[in-house]
């Protein structure tokens, strides 16, 4: 099989359509179909399922995709290495981000990086912690922002300690003599909670402090959570990074005991990054790594 075959397979997997893949790759639909048929004949099994709803991966195709991504990533690394040897800074970097990094850090990262490295393209994928973990492990992205606790077995460079805050509707704090919210006070409130995949560190805090929260509201988006709190549907825990310049009338307080998440930059093989990826990795570390994490 050729690199073009792998590119055809990956593009169809991404867009779910032979015709869209043909447009993206500048090929005819018949050429796309022929490439997949040849691939399946060579493999001895089907990698795609065709239906009226579109094209999807078979179970075999799902298992094959990470290896195809690895081959294509190696090809991109080779091209970048050659460009590096020729004194050029070019290539592509694919980054996975979760919501608060996307809104608070990403615009400045993209702006400052593109200002220095105009020939390096950047592709961004936003999702939950679980999404970013999947993308890193399967070669969809080169780098990904995660909390250290959510990275698990993926190598991660710690960058920033982000304090967790308790968020309440404006003016509703019961004990106004303190500037924090303790566990006992939290127990008297209903919570607006987020799914485990959205912020595992908050879920860990709840479990560690035996907070059996009651909630009828299970959302994914940070600002949706805060909007429900503003309207009196409960309280929530939220990283401080999220609470910067929010458009909602809520009060936020440190927790007692104190809690935080550590944001880091993760890569599956940090010692074998393509030149453009290494350049982006170093750019982010230099810009955001706090002194307590510097080696």
Automatic annotation (TrEMBL):
<dbReference type="GO" id="GO:0003677">
    <property type="term" value="F:DNA binding"/>
</dbReference>
<dbReference type="Pfam" id="PF03466">
    <property type="entry name" value="LysR_substrate"/>
</dbReference>
<dbReference type="InterPro" id="IPR000847">
    <property type="entry name" value="LysR_HTH_N"/>
</dbReference>
<dbReference type="InterPro" id="IPR036388">
    <property type="entry name" value="WH-like_DNA-bd_sf"/>
</dbReference>
<protein>
    <submittedName>
        <fullName>HTH-type transcriptional regulator gltC</fullName>
    </submittedName>
</protein>
<feature type="domain" description="HTH lysR-type">
    <location>
        <begin position="1"/>
        <end position="58"/>
    </location>
</feature>
<dbReference type="Pfam" id="PF00126">
    <property type="entry name" value="HTH_1"/>
</dbReference>
<comment type="similarity">
    <text>Belongs to the LysR transcriptional regulatory family.</text>
</comment>
<keyword id="KW-0805">Transcription regulation</keyword>
<dbReference type="InterPro" id="IPR005119">
    <property type="entry name" value="LysR_subst-bd"/>
</dbReference>
<dbReference type="InterPro" id="IPR050950">
    <property type="entry name" value="HTH-type_LysR_regulators"/>
</dbReference>
<dbReference type="GO" id="GO:0003700">
    <property type="term" value="F:DNA-binding transcription factor activity"/>
</dbReference>
<keyword id="KW-0238">DNA-binding</keyword>
<dbReference type="InterPro" id="IPR036390">
    <property type="entry name" value="WH_DNA-bd_sf"/>
</dbReference>
<dbReference type="GO" id="GO:0005829">
    <property type="term" value="C:cytosol"/>
</dbReference>
<keyword id="KW-0804">Transcription</keyword>
């Amino acid at each position: 099989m050729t690199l073009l075959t792998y590119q055809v397979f990956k593009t169809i997997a991404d867009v779910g359509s032979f015709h869209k893949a043909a447009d993206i790759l500048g090929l005819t639909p018949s050429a796309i179909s022929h490439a997949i048929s040849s691939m399946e004949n060579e493999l001895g099994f089907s990698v795609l399922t065709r239906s009226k709803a579109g094209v999807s991966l078979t179970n075999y195709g799902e298992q094959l995709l990470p290896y195809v991504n690895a081959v294509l990533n190696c090809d991109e690394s080779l091209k970048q290495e050659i460009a590096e040897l020729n004194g050029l800074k070019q290539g592509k970097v694919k980054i996975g981000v979760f919501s608060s990094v996307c809104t608070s850090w990403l615009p400045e990262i993209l702006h400052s990086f593109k200002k220095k490295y105009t020939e390096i393209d950047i592709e961004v994928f936003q999702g939950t912690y679980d999404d970013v973990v999947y993308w890193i492990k399967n070669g969809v992205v080169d780098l990904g922002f995660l909390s250290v606790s959510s990275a698990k077995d993926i190598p991660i460079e710690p960058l920033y300690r982000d304090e967790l805050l308790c968020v309440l509707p404006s003016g509703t704090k019961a004990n106004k003599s303190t500037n924090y919210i303790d566990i006992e006070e939290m127990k008297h409130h209903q919570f607006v909670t987020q799914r485990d995949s959205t912020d595992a560190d908050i879920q860990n805090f709840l479990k560690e402090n035996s907070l059996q929260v009651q909630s009828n509201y299970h959302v994914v988006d940070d600002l949706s959570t805060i909007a429900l709190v503003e309207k009196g549907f409960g309280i929530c825990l939220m990283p401080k990074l999220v609470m910067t310049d929010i458009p909602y009338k809520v009060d936020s307080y440190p927790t007692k005991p104190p809690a935080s998440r550590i944001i880091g930059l993760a890569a599956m093989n940090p010692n074998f990054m393509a030149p453009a990826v290494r350049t982006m990795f170093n750019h982010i570390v230099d810009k955001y790594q706090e002194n307590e994490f510097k080696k």
